[in-house]
Amino acid sequence: MERVGAGQDLVLGYVRALKAIDEAMRVAIPSLERLADVLGLARSRRISRSGHIGTYSYTVHGAGCRFVSGNGTEVDVDFEADGSEVFDLWRLRWYGLSLPEPVDVTDEDLRSAVRSLQPLLAEVRPGWYSVAS
Q: What's the whole-model pTM score?
């Protein structure tokens, strides 16, 4: 049970970090309506595909973006066509390993943690999750 608790803490930390990034980006780019708009700004060359915005560095990739905070914590997120933020177990593990005090949780423990956090989280397609609205 302790491992599931560690997994839950990691998942909740990722969700909080994602929310903090969203808030910081909206402050830094007032025209941003949602975090997914970073993709459109990069694709239209209004911002670079990588750089710094506010207190975060960012790198736009494929369907998402990787954000790195000043302390090195990494939050990688993909975006659905509707702009919703989605993540998988790999992104959660990478987040945990990038923390100042790394947390290494198995995929099995993360799966259990994600299941235990429903309805906060929704599985939008097999293995991919989103914060429920």
A: 0.92
User: If pLDDT is split at 50, 70 and 90, which confidence band does 1 have?
Assistant: very low
Cβ atoms within 10 Å, residue 114: 22
Percent of the chain with pLDDT over 70: 97
Q: Measured between alpha carbons, how far is 43 from 93 in angstroms, rounded to an integer?
A: 28
* DSSP code for 6: H
E strands present in the chain: 50-53, 56-61, 64-68, 74-79, 85-88, 121-125, 128-131
Nearest to 36 by CA among 91, 74, 86, 84: 84
> Helix %, strand %, coil % for the chain, to 5?
40, 25, 35
